């Protein structure tokens, strides 16, 4: 293939025997950085510098993106830890796509359209790696930093030196080599190249859906609602629904939940809760949470969108108000009310509280007002109709 014909390594700067990754700063961002280029030291060994160069240039490009107004807000968002490991094939495809994305970003940032740098020695080592001819130590020196990056993001939990780690390292070598082939083809003007290695045959498959921790999602939802002036109690009652769903389904990843999971959970709730509680608290909580998550692009779909719970119709066998005997019983109890006394014979409540319990029910009976309306009434000082700090007021 044409990798052996690659010329000068781009984005690699050498000065006084040391190597650096270099990216030119666009004119619009030079006032932000105060310089015309960004550099990252790569050490004094050329071969090691070439291995680190793609990662370093990618990091410099990320800094440029964050400096742009549209990228600054996204950079401040917390990164959610992954909840499940990706397969070796998925990681190889992810690495391949990352490299091509870096190549495209480098070409856009470079005035000469330069992409990912190509080094024939590095390509030769990758060929040996994908063929399984390298030791664990050699593989670690070649692509170990890539695997560690996946570990840090929670994409894999393979342990260094294990069989799974070695298989992953070989897969990464294949994806890196294929990405270098695409970069070389792009240098020649061909942007339609496709990988040939079997590990990348699932390239056109949709990317795996990012895992979203359900309890973390709930915390974000509550924080948003509180900023809007609701759920000031932190959702103390609604969180029971979220915890119940996690406990029943044993799925902490919101994107793993299905409509069937919601249905089975709902059926289980009916064993211990009333249909009214499910209909008024549990299902609305989950529906609203997932609807918000879909709107914020945190979930692909709302598995509880169609979930509903029928409640038994309330059957009234009498009028809603009191009959005469009931009204008299209540009013006589109000008039006869006496506060509890201490062992020394002193009332255990304020005199105003006693008056409220005696008179508010009577006033409600005669006016038709609600308890809450009546207890909010205040009496203003007759000599000062405008209420201020000098005017005493009390509950009627």
Overview features:
single chain; mainly alpha; two-stranded antiparallel ribbon
Strand residue percentage: 5-15%
Order of helices and strands: EEHEHHHHHHHHHHHHHEE
Approximate helicity band: 40-55%
Rg for CA atoms: 35 Å
Unreliable stretches (pLDDT < 50, length at least 5) are 70-84, 389-396
Shape: elongated
Strand count, sense and barrel status of the largest sheet are:
3 strands, antiparallel
How many DSSP H or I helices? 14
| Strands, total number | 5
Q: What structural category arises from helix and sheet content?
A: mainly alpha
How would you describe the oligomerization state of the chains in this entry?
single chain
Strand line-up of the largest beta sheet: 1-2-3
User: pLDDT average, as an integer?
Assistant: 81
Distance between the termini: 94 Å
């Amino acid at each position: 293939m044409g990798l052996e014909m690659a010329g000068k390594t781009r984005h690699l700067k050498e000065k006084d025997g040391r190597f650096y990754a270099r990216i030119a700063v666009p004119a619009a961002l030079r006032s932000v950085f105060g310089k015309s280029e960004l550099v990252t030291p790569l050490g004094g060994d050329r071969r090691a510098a070439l291995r680190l160069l793609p990662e370093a240039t990618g990091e410099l490009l990320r800094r440029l993106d964050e400096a742009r107004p549209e990228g600054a807000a996204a950079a401040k968002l917390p990164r959610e830890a992954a909840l499940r490991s990706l397969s070796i094939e998925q990681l190889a495809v992810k690495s391949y796509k990352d490299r091509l994305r870096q190549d495209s970003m480098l070409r856009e940032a470079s005035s000469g359209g330069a992409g990912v740098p190509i080094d024939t020695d590095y390509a030769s080592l990758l060929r040996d790696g994908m063929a399984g001819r390298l030791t664990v130590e050699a593989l670690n020196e070649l692509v170990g930093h890539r695997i560690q990056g996946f570990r840090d993001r929670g994409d894999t939990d393979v342990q260094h030196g294990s069989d799974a780690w070695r298989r992953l390292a070989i897969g990464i070598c294949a994806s890196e080599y294929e990405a270098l082939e695409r970069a070389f083809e792009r240098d020649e003007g061909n942007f339609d190249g496709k990988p040939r290695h079997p590990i990348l045959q699932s390239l056109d498959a949709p990317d795996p859906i990012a895992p979203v921790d359900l309890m973390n999602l709930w915390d974000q939802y509550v924080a948003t609602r509180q900023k809007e002036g609701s759920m000031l109690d932190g959702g103390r009652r609604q969180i029971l629904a979220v915890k119940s769903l996690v406990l029943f389904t044993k799925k902490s990843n919101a994107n793993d939940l299905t409509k069937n999971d919601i249905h089975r959970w709902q059926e289980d709730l009916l064993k211990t809760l009333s249909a009214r509680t499910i209909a008024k608290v549990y299902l609305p909580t989950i529906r609203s949470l997932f609807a918000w998550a879909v709107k914020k692009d945190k979930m692909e779909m709302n598995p509880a969108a169609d979930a509903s719970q029928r409640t038994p119709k309330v059957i009234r066998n009498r009028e809603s108000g009191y009959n005469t005997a009931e009204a008299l019983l209540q009013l006589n109890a109000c008039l006869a009310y006496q506060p509890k006394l201490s062992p020394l014979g002193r009332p255990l409540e304020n005199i105003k509280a006693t008056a409220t319990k005696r008179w508010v029910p009577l006033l409600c009976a005669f006016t038709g007002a609600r308890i809450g309306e009546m207890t909010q009434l205040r009496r203003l000082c007759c000599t000062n109709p405008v209420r201020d700090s000098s005017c005493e007021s009390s509950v009627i």
